[in-house]
Amino acid sequence: MTTTYAVLSEGLEKRYGDVRALRGLELAVPEGRVCGVLGPNGAGKTTAVRVLTTLTAPDSGSARVAGHDVVRDPAAVRRHIGVTGQYASVDGDLTGAENLRLFARLLRAPRARADELLERFGLDEAAGRPARTYSGGMRRRLDLAASLLVRPRVLFLDEPTTGLDPHSRNAIWDAVRGLASQGTTVLLTTQYLEEADQLADDIVLVDEGRAAHTGTPAQLKALVGSYAEVVVADPAGLPAAAAVLDRLTGSLPVLDADARTVGAVTTDPTLTLPRVVRALDAAGVLVVDASLRPPTLDEVFLRLTARTEAVA
Question: How many CA atoms lie within 13 A of 294 on its CB side?
Answer without folding.
Answer: 9
